[in-house]
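FIELD: query
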Amino acid sequence: MSTLITVVIAADPPPRLDKALARDVPEGLGLSRSRLMKLLADGAISVSGCVVTDAKSKVVEGTQIQIDVPQAAPTHIEAEDIPLKVLFEDEALVVVNKPAGMVVHPAPGTPSGTLVNALMYHFGSNLSGVGGVARPGIVHRIDKDTSGVLVVAKSDAAHQGLAAQFEAHTAERKYDAICYGVPDANDPRLRGIRGTSFEPGNVLKISTLLGRHRTDRQKQAVNFDQGRHAVTRERLEERYGQPEALARVSCALETGRTHQIRVHLAHVGHGLVGDPVYGGKRRFAKGVLSDAAVAAVEGFPRQALHAGLLGFRHPLTGQQMRFDAPPPADIALLLDVLQNASAV
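FIELD: result
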């Protein structure tokens, strides 16, 4: 058995087939560049109905490419009895509220205790394997220390349908965050930062390329000449401190790149509270915040980021679906302290 995937090459493609595929295959399908190269070498990729094995073959905008993905290989990942908060489940998909501290997929440093380990225990073989390994089901990810809503595919058809929506930017994703400073779209300083623009409703749009940091491969970085297109829309929700020192913001993702919100807010000078990689340490002038608020901010153990809302069209029925989850206890407690953030 196999799964046939059709990819249409978008505008301004790279000149080579392998590079065009790496760019235009939906990220959520889990087909890495190395896996695409193997499928190409195995004769599993056709252009306009003809099998192609030459990675240097030329493609143009609108070219239809078929990828015949073989049946997923058995997984080595073990099922683990880890509790999950399931928001919705049917025969096609599962929506879960992932806790902070849980890695989505096993990796060399975290071979167990992940969301996939838990999913395999609770749902057995009923998870898609279109990415090449049986039963991972992962369509999109959120960082280990980010909490919130995530959808998982239970069939290859559902996986393809969901991945296409994430790739086309039609899935709705909104995050709650607490950041340093107050990123008000009316702040003239923000107008001088490359990649920023402003939309009605006091919305700050951040549009850049994102890619690997040049010297630290564990980090992502803003770029303007290479990387993947990334767009975040940020709206100020609440201000804290006298004078204002912190803010609660909502961030809507048009794209979903690795660490996108964290990198984009740091790019405009408003890193997330608790983010050890991009947030930076901030000192507060005496009297700006209460002692309790300062202690709560300085002691917050993770990036203050929560995937609060996820919306998409059901990949099989076409029904529009929307799921939300309130901030978890740690962020709720921090917000409660910040409500009374003025010094006393």
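FIELD: remark
The chain is about 20% helix and 30% strand.
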